[in-house]
Amino acid sequence: MTTRSGFVLAFVLLLARVGGASPAAEKLFQDGRNFMNEGKLAEACDAFRRSNELEARVGTLLNLANCEEKRGRLATAWSAFVEARALAKRSNDDRATEADKRASALAPRLPYLTIKVAHPLPDLVVRRNGIEVPAAELEHDVPLDPGAYDVEASATGYQAFKQAVELAPGARATVAIPALVASPAGDAPAVAPATPVAAVETKATPTPSWTARRFGAGVGLGGTTQKDVIVGLRGFIGIVEAGPGVIRLVPSVFYTRSHDAMDVYQYYDVFAIGLATELAWPQTGQLFVAAGLGFGLDIIKDGYGNPISTNAWAAARVSPTLRLGAHFDLGLHIQLVAGGGGVVGLGELGIDYVF
User: Fold this and answer.
1) What is the 3-state secondary structure (H, E, C) of 228-286?
2) Is the domain of 219 the same as that of 252?
């Protein structure tokens, strides 16, 4: 009897779940997908948001977050990914991993604004772009979407304070609200002169956004499967965004001296000049993997003074890389190089300075 009752209860709950599905939410979701396909991001994000308000679903939140990220509203996107992760975990949905991965990739790109109040007043009201800021947010770093913000502070009997600030991806800014000046008796509250924007403290976060990391140069040291030591210079130039990652060009020049196994007096000085195209894709806040294809030319000079020779080659490459603060990347660069002499494996440890 108990088992039968259990089946009946499960069946009733299933019917309730199916019956509770919102047709309006599904229609709005489909509208959002159609708008995305048409490139209408504002309309798509609005449709996904309204669908989620009617019926919260992991898929809706992931689409909303992806939409908001595409139109540059990074904090809004990050918040939606975090909400999707929480909902997915509660319902044992495998998409919790994807939501967590996307949220982690976005985190270093978030701008933050801190509003500090020098002298709180009982009826002090602080607004950001016309919307009242909760007291709990004051004195704390708050992630916001990139863009322009007007911060205002007002209280009865005092001149209002106003300051504008611009937030770029991966930046931090602080607006310090000074002690408000009392208004002259009988006068209407006036707006105090705005503090110059230059007075706002703005600095890069320890891990700048992917799109901000456009240029870099560094050195590498490693070896080949033929037991030769290689050393050289490399760089990268970001050319186009690709989702949360970036496609970049990687020029390099490396040197090695190899010896002829059959002739102890013969050696070869090899300068390898290369250019690769790779996709750098974030894995976590500090780790990314770059992979791509390249080609190049070896310029070879032997120890006997023979004419300089050349050897063209092509390569496949992968580079797991760790970010070290704001300006350094430490990467393990692994390549398979195919040229006139067959296929050679290369491995090098490189450190890049990022501008």
Assistant:
1) CEEEEEEEEEEEEEECCEEEEEEEEEEEEEEEECCEEEEEEEEEEEEEEEEEEEECCCC
2) yes
Low-confidence ranges of the chain (pLDDT < 70): 1-21, 185-214, 243-244, 261, 263-265, 284-286, 325-326
Q: Are 238 and 214 in contact (CB under 8 A)?
A: yes
For the segment 205-239, what is each residue's pLDDT rounded down to a tens digit?
Answer: 444 444 445 678 999 999 888 888 999 999 988 88
| Residues 79-122 pLDDT 10s | 999 999 999 999 999 999 999 999 999 999 999 999 999 888 88
Residues 69 and 173 in one domain: no
Rounded to whole angstroms, how far apart are CA atoms 172 and 143? 9
* 100 shares a domain with 49: yes
Domain containing 244: what range? 215-354
Query: Which CATH number goes with the domain that contains 45?
Result: 1.25.40.10
